[in-house]
Amino acid sequence: MYILGLESSCDETSAAVVEMEGGRRRILTNIIASQIDIHALYGGVVPEIAGRAHIEAITRITRRALDSAGLPLSDIGLVAVTAHPGLIGALLVGVNFAKSLAFANHIPLVGVDHIRGHLAAALLAHEDLTPPYLGLVLSGGHTAFYTADDYADLCEIGGTRDDAVGEAFDKIARVLGMPYPGGTALDKLAYTGDPNAFALPSPALGGDTLDFSFSGLKTATLNLIHHEEQLGRPLPAADIAAAFTRTVADGIAKKLALTLEMTGRKTVVIAGGAAANSHIRAAAERVCRAAGATLYLPPLSLCGDNAAMIAAAGYYAYLSGERADTALNASPV
Q1: What is the pLDDT of residue 23?
Q2: Which of 110, 142, 276, 332 allows an S-S link to 303, with CB 3.0 to 4.6 Å?
Q3: What is the DSSP code string of 84-124?
Q4: What is the Cα–Cα distance from 51 to 56, expressed in whole angstroms?
Q5: CATH number of 133-300
């Protein structure tokens, strides 16, 4: 089956064609129209601007995705679109476009949970990956653990109580003077500093909970930066980046180890935009190696928002019996 995936939850418009059949998972095209240059002017995503940019791009990139795959629309067996969570104005563009396209051409439609999409990215990269597994989504808006007992069966068992890890990375990078989005630059800068230069509070909450809290870490780091500025000292940006990144990676590693112990899972999937962070990837590999667990990570190209992951998640939702009609709506949560 050929699935047309559509993604517009935040600041990237994406259309993809994916072939899914049995154990076969193949990306034919995965087109992404990024809005980074637009939002960099404001230091973050402006929802109204994002929605307008999606409107301008979605028809063009959908046509390009089909043409690049060498398929007519009549060969598409399913349309899968991100329906939640995300920016409501941005989501509505994708949902309404998908509904119009699907029902005008008599193609089945499914609405996809964006979180399920991120975890499905690993399925596209690793054909040997099968449930059950432990999932950890790390992105700009989400940080949570899930158990996956089937391809379309996810259960959240722990998460952040406030900010998400990706948002924390971007905020600290911005205050350190890095252009939006600053996660990649912060990742690289951290290698040049002393990770033990400053003691910062762990985002891993104490006790047996599987939850995180990044607000305290973020506030402590901002206070550290402001303190150095008030004293008139040259800002030790590399040391701050290294200490902050180490604290985040260690906190995630701590909760990952606890989650593996509590669930007994031996297969781990980590996905989402912040899963591209090399320090987090290395820490997770150490934890899984020590626990005798197998770790699956999407390639960097599939960590960020993209429509191929939505197509894959949509396929398994379709197999489980999910269908959408013209009443399909977007939701921010």
Answers
A1: 79
A2: 276
A3: ESS-HHHHHHHHHHHHHHHHHTT--EEEEEHHHHHHHHHHH
A4: 9
A5: 3.30.420.40
pLDDT above 90 for 179: no
131 prior amide bond cis, ω within 30? no
pLDDT at 28 over 90: yes
CB atoms within 10 A of CB 21: 11
Say how far apart CA 55 and CA 23 lie, in whole Å: 35
Which CATH number among 3.30.420.340, 3.30.420.40, 3.40.50.2300, 3.40.50.2020 corresponds to the domain 2-125+303-319?
A: 3.30.420.40
pLDDT of residue 17 exceeding 90:
yes
Contact call for residues 298 and 122 (beta carbons, < 8 A): yes
Q: Evaluate if residue 180 carries a pLDDT over 90.
A: no
The model's pTM? 0.95
DSSP H helices, the chain, are 36-39, 47-69, 88-104, 114-125, 165-175, 183-190, 215-230, 237-263, 278-291, 307-319
pLDDT tens digits, one per residue of 272-293? 999 999 999 999 999 999 999 9
